[in-house]
Amino acid sequence: MRILRRGRTHPFVRLVMLACCLSFPVLPGCTAASGPPRSLDEPAPVVDSDRSAPRTTFARALERARTRLYARDFADASPAARRDTEDFLSGLVESAWRVAHAARYLAFPDFTSSRGIVGLPGLFNPDNRYRSALLDPEGSYRIAGVRGTHATLSFQFLGDYPLVAISKDLLVIDLDARAVAPGEAFALRLGGAEASANGEPWWPMPPGARAVLARETFADWANETASTMHIERLDGGHAAPDGPSQIDLAADYLDRATTLWADHYLAGLEQLPENVIPPIRPSGGEAGGLRGQQGAIARYRLEPDEALVVSLRASDAAYQSIQLGNAWFATQNPVRHQASLNRSQARVDEDGMLRFVISHRDPGVANWLDTAGAEQGYLMIRWQGIRTPLGEADQPLAERVRLDALEAVLPATTQRSTPEARAAQLAGRARLPALRH
Question: Which helix (H) or strand (E) holds 170?
């Protein structure tokens, strides 16, 4: 896709504007003033039902989002930066459209997923297969399936729609904590009367729950199998969609997602010191993330001839990983670039340490994390299924060095890489769980 610089309308934007406005008059300039996003309980504006009226709602929201993104200095600082900005814009659009569709069919929930995670806001983990369904807080539901052989499986109930809001963590059901073994069937009941659960595990519906997010975490991309699952609403609900159209809802959600991620969330991340890893902390609660997971988020900035060496102890947790994200806190292409490694994929040194080298070009080390050309960005380290409590010895450390001084920093036993070995590593990334299942 050809990228145009700031001030000119990207062909993708023009295409969507044309699709939204086809057969209707186009308002000059097709722009509108932006304002604070509405709450989920406040309806989106109703468009004039006269079919001769302009239908440019979504096109305007898309142009507003694009303008706001390219107002950031780093948005088109380089060809790689422009690619990341276009990917992020596409991720915002996809998120808004999928949520808008699901919001109109609350009576018929379904677990939906995206085969692509590139550009989606919030640094999606390549080791995860994410599936989500929207909920009516007054409804009752049954979730059933068969657990796969992947590392962990959890269902997280959220107080807002995913991606258009940072969702409060209301409830997490960890199937591993409930001793559901690989290949074993499971069923969960939420809401309604406990007596109607027919002996299946039951929870009261968390007040204000609007979505459930299923996370299947994979350690071995080649061999682990996925879970099957479905969700059913038990109390009926509205039989047909009503309220605003999908295109109007999507425009509202796109405005909201852009404000949330590009303005508010990113502003907080940009306060992190560069090339320093803060203390490990629990996820979940008001700040979002998965309850029971622990992690650390850091910000990096590297020159072409520099590297960041990240060292941490290999844990006995069920899952441990490190991942890079670009300046938008979005996932880079995880197939083309080795921008993430979990403990099963990484090489552990003889002293029990994991050492990763973050750099713009291949340093000849097995545990290389490729920035994909992003001069600045973020890294996230995750632990799930923690068996031994994390302590001071588990705190990751980072050291910025020149690439030509890397050999003096790494132990002699740290595994190096050859072009053939690197090609084999990258070939294995085509087994990305989101693509394979």
Answer: strand 169-174
Spatial separation of the C-alpha atoms in residues 56 and 251, rounded to whole Å: 10
Task: Please indicate, yes or no, if residue 182 is contained in any of the structural domains.
Answer: no
Query: Is residue 377 assigned to a domain?
Result: yes
Contact criterion met (CB below 8 Å) for 111 and 132: yes
Residue identified by tokens 């750099």 is: 359
- CATH number of the domain residue 412 falls in: 2.60.120.1600
| CB 272 within 8 Å of CB 297 | yes
Q: What is the DSSP letter of 191?
A: S
Give me Rg for the CA atoms of the chain.
23
Whether residue 160 is contained in a domain is answered as: no
- The residue assigned the tokens 């399936």 is 145
CA distance 46 to 109: 24
Identify whether 277 is part of a domain: yes
CA angle 200, 206, 211 (to 5 degrees): 90
Q: What is the mean pLDDT of each run of 10 residues along the chain (437 residues)?
A: 41 43 30 36 43 64 96 95 97 94 91 86 94 94 97 94 85 93 97 91 96 95 96 80 83 95 93 96 69 91 98 95 97 95 97 97 97 97 93 96 96 96 96 86
Domain interval for residue 422: 268-436
For the chain, give the number of residues. Answer: 437
For residues 93 and 59, is the Cβ–Cβ distance under 8 A? no
Quick one: how far is CA 389 from the chain centroid? Answer: 26
Q: DSSP for 379-429, please give it.
A: EEEEEES-SS---GGG--EEEEEEGGGHHHHS-TTS-B--HHHHHHHHHHG
Q: Which of 400, 330, 327, 337 is nearest to 372 (CA)?
A: 337
Q: Which residue has the tokens 């027919």?
A: 198
Give the single-character DSSP code of 314: P
Domain count, the chain: 1
Amino acid letter for position 260 = L
